[in-house]
Amino acid sequence: MLEDRLDTVRAWVREARHIAVLTGAGVSAESGVPTFRDAQTGYWAQFRAEDMATEAGFRSHPERVWNWYQHRRQLMDGVQPNAGHRALAQFQAAHPGRLTLITQNVDGLHQRVGSTGVLCLHGDLFADRWLDAPRDCCQLGEAVAGSPPTCRHCGNQVRPGVVWFGEMLPLAVFEAAERATQDCELMLVVGTAGAVYPAAGLAHLARSAGARVVVLNPNPSELDGTADAVLRGTSASLLPGLLAG
Ligand code: APR
Fold this sequence. Notes:
The chain is an alpha/beta fold. It is 38% helix and 16% strand. The radius of gyration is 19 Å and the shape is elongated.
């Protein structure tokens, strides 16, 4: 059964002039990066998202939240991209302009393995920015070290450059993702629970714009019902075979 569906989706990949790929934390799971919603190992099984991934959570416990992001940054030192990341980058290199990669991930693994034009909907784990609108005195290079670092003049705090719950996605990036979605003939939805909007809404947009939608996930996701085909498996095991050739 899976083999039959794989052959069908391989044919869809070959036919599609433009493919959009929406990735989530599951793509990095086989590299050893925890996901968010895995019942045992996911970050949201250990922490409340309201505490660790909202502006209010940062303002009430800046040290705790800053240190958690520092921990996640340090974790990435020992992490390598996996066969799923590589297959996407190799397809882009072999077929310039045919595949747009849209990711909810902030870990930089797609870029590390050579993917280009990656549309990072949820920001960058390694970027810093000011919590409050920066004044002239706020210079990231001159922030006083601390957890979090601060402006030596006004005390403004440095925060990670990720998109927290309740925040706007970077507008230009999201618009580019919407355009790629509307233009695509095939969307692969890989390693995401499909629980967070507006990112998950791109799969619905692709479907309503007439594209085929394929979910790749070892577990049920909230986007399975939107898909033309669901491939039950991991990204590192499925993507190389789907995108080869
Ligand atoms: N290959 C593919 N998918 C996998 C794998 C794997 N090896 N391992 C786990 N998965 C799937 C899980 O079954 C789950 O459906 O990846 C998905 C991960 O889901 P989440 O942890 O919810 O991650 P994601 O969908 O990326 O979360 C979206 O939520 O907390 C926020 O900002 C955060 O960007 C994140 C957003």
